[in-house]
Amino acid sequence: MVTTPVLPLEAASPAHICPFDQACSYLEAAGKELKLDQGSLEILSHPRKVVTVSIPVKLDNGEVRVLAGHRVQHSDILGPYKGGIRYHPAVTLREVSALAMLMTWKCALLGIPYGGAKGGIAIDPQLYSVGELERITRRYTSELIKDIGPSVDIPAPDMGTSAREMAWMMDTYSVNVGHAVPGVVTGKPLSVGGSLGREMATGRGVMIIVREALADQGKSLAGMRIVIQGFGNVGGAAAELLYKAGAKIIAVSTATGGVYYPTGLDIPALKTYAAVNRKSVVGFPQAAPISNADLLTLPCDVLIPAALENQITEENVNQVQAQMIAEAANGPITLEANQILEARGVTVLPDILANAGGVVVSYLEWVQGLSYLFWNEQRVNHEMEQLMVQAYHQVIQQSKLRQVNLRLAAYTLGVGRVAQALSDRGLYP
Ligand SMILES: NC(=O)C1=CN([C@@H]2O[C@H](COP(=O)(O)OP(=O)(O)OC[C@H]3O[C@@H](n4cnc5c(N)ncnc54)[C@H](OP(=O)(O)O)[C@@H]3O)[C@@H](O)[C@H]2O)C=CC1
Ligand SMILES: O=C(O)CCC(=O)C(=O)O
């Protein structure tokens, strides 16, 4: 039985589905399936280190605000901590802790030598100027200076952050230590040691996993009706690549709402439209407006939630019509909803597999940086695809072997590898 963490996590609001409790439940299920000993389960259910820092920032109007910045380092059993930095108003320590734990299993599942971490600041980046965001990012990095590093903890982009924030983090870290350290972050601009292919990597990974899953059902991407929630780094890239592969993207959304066009949206035109409309797809000519809630229940072949956690819950799961759901976001389906989908025979491609393309190319970026040798995009994409397809087949095999759903199959592989390393390292006090 996984116990309640002793770390300073704020109480979960009873009205809110707690992502950390959900993550612990999945760990517990994997532990039971693997017959893990109580000690290992106890260790793996606790983040190793939880850091919260104050970030004082002077706004452009002269007002001073102090923000809370988190970095949760769940596990470094397999290697340096690894995971993104999220800027979003809903960020809490519990959410960041859950996402850090997912990173541990994701890296282990993909066979890349990292542990898991996540960071975040509870802000809406769209309400801050570029100058304010730069000051926030630099101060956050300075406060974390002793906790990150290329062989300690390597941040990357997540919701609300991008290559721009990674460049600021890299520069702040480098200035603090006195020399350039590109390997302290991944997802950087190419000019400071980023990798070709990283920007599209998470979306590309989603496309690869959906393609493989459809192929196992004797189908191809061509003509598939696909709905995508979220049109940012992940949802936007997935839409573009799936569209290029011949799928019909019939609906997409951003936080303010979505658009629906049953015969398939013109994705290049929609990207251009969003680029000049503060990233929003609302008002795209010809398409009908649709709410985020209605978008999730549209008739389609594949549903791709690529925004926030807890989008498919007990409340709306019975209205979901897709026969396949690829979790591009982390934790978009609750535990209860997942059980209902499984009972209905819906194929759920779990987050730690479906959205792993990003961290895989982060790893390839880090490897390229450490070896001072940069690859062309074709090679990056090829290496990533090999790791993704290999992990997909391992999950399918594990699912058949243990007679468990794909999520539990992915978790047993990820958790099992970390537990094995824990036992081999002999970390028991
Ligand atoms: N970036 C990466 O490499 C990886 C990201 N992920 C996961 O993918 C998900 C998306 O991340 P990413 O694409 O990077 O983030 P971005 O910030 O680039 O984009 C997020 C998208 O989601 C939309 N969105 C925000 N809130 C809502 C909402 N309540 N309902 C519907 N849409 C909403 C945003 O709209 P708007 O612009 O209007 O706010 C935006 O279109 C997250 O769960 C993240 O953890 C997973 C692996 C790697
Ligand atoms: O690229 C990375 O290191 C992390 C990406 C990430 O945050 C995620 O996979 O959720």
UniProtKB/TrEMBL annotation:
Keywords: NAD, Nucleotide-binding, Oxidoreductase
Glutamate/phenylalanine/leucine/valine/L-tryptophan dehydrogenase C-terminal domain residues: 195-426
Protein residues bound to substrate: 82, 106, 362
Gene Ontology molecular function, alphabetical: glutamate dehydrogenase (NAD+) activity; nucleotide binding
Active-site feature positions: 118 (proton donor)
Domain of life from the UniProt record: Bacteria
Regions crossing the membrane: none
Keyword Glycoprotein: no
Record InterPro entries: Aminoacid_DH-like_N_sf, Glu/Leu/Phe/Val/Trp_DH, Glu/Leu/Phe/Val/Trp_DH_C, Glu/Leu/Phe/Val/Trp_DH_dimer, Glu/Leu/Phe/Val_DH_AS, Glu_DH, NAD(P)-bd_dom_sf, NAD_bind_Glu_DH
Residues holding NAD(+): 202, 233
Family, similarity comment: Belongs to the Glu/Leu/Phe/Val dehydrogenases family.
PANTHER family reported for this sequence: GLUTAMATE DEHYDROGENASE (PTHR11606), GLUTAMATE DEHYDROGENASE 1, MITOCHONDRIAL (PTHR11606:SF13)
Name this polypeptide is given: Glutamate dehydrogenase
Taxonomic source organism: Atlanticothrix silvestris CENA357
